[in-house]
């Protein structure tokens, strides 16, 4: 499973709990759409991602609220492979629907994952789905959430889940 998080907005701790924490610990790969805020939070999430198996990779992009030292360490966009699919991550604060669609086409992406709005959901563009995992820790009027992507036969199943395990959205690619 690939787990995607976003918009933690912490200063010391990972702020993971419930199914979100379990999913991060069990994931084959963890992706974060930025706005950890501090390097300490980035390191705490990376530690949880690697706790069970000795190291699930943490792929992350910089958000507009990340400390300058952390932002300098992280790219603006990143492309990862999972289950034979190309997944592009961006924070999203400087991208509208058109530029996200262009980014997806440019990278020949099967899925684009963005954050920034704290609004969990899955939207379909002409090229591919755009997934926003929301925020597991700072939902700002939305439900706290994270994303889970799994190989399901020949398809990729995408789910948005709450820390309590409630299913908020799903789609297959």
UniProtKB/TrEMBL annotation:
Tell me the ranges covered by the Calcineurin-like phosphoesterase domain, including all copies: 3-143
Which controlled-vocabulary keywords does the entry list?
Answer: Hydrolase, Metal-binding
Single GO term (MF): metal ion binding
Q: CDD domains, per this entry?
A: MPP_YfcE
**UniProt protein name:** Phosphoesterase
Organism of derivation: Halapricum desulfuricans
| DNA-binding among keywords | no
Entry's Gene3D superfamilies? 3.60.21.10
Similarity field = Belongs to the metallophosphoesterase superfamily. YfcE family.
Q: Which cofactor does it need?
A: a divalent metal cation
**SUPFAM superfamilies, sorted:** Metallo-dependent phosphatases (SSF56300)
| Pfam families the UniProt entry points to | Metallophos_2 (PF12850)
């Amino acid at each position: 499973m690939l787990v995607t998080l976003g918009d933690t907005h912490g200063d010391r701790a990972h702020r993971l709990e419930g199914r979100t924490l379990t999913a991060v610990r069990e994931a084959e790969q963890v992706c974060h759409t930025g706005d950890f805020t501090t390097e300490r939070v980035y390191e705490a999430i990376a530690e949880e991602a690697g706790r069970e198996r000795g190291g699930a990779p943490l792929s992350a992009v910089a958000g507009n609220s990340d400390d300058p030292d952390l932002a300098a360490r992280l790219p603006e966009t990143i492309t990862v492979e999972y289950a034979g699919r190309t997944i592009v991550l961006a924070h999203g604060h400087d991208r509208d629907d058109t530029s996200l669609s262009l980014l997806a086409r440019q990278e020949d992406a099967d899925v684009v994952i963005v954050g920034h709005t704290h609004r969990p959901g899955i939207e379909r563009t002409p090229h591919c789905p755009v997934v926003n995992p929301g925020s597991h820790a700072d939902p700002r009027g939305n439900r706290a959430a994270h994303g889970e992507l799994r190989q399901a036969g020949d398809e990729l199943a995408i789910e948005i889940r709450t820390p309590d395990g409630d299913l908020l959205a799903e789609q297959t690619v």
